[in-house]
Write a structure and sequence with these properties.
Hc1; mainly alpha; Histone H1-like protein Hc1
Length: 58
Amino acid sequence: MKDLVAKINAEFEAFKTESESLIEKGVKAAGPRARKSTLELEKLLKEFRKVSVEESKK
């Protein structure tokens, strides 16, 4: 579970960096990278929910 949380944090940092580049610097190429990060975050968060529920049943 710690590994999963580390992946979520890393992906969030990537999203944060790309979204700041898009908003503050106007780097248009950062938009698709930020959107890709959101999709990856969605997958990781769903996995976290699944693991968390399993852990709570123990």
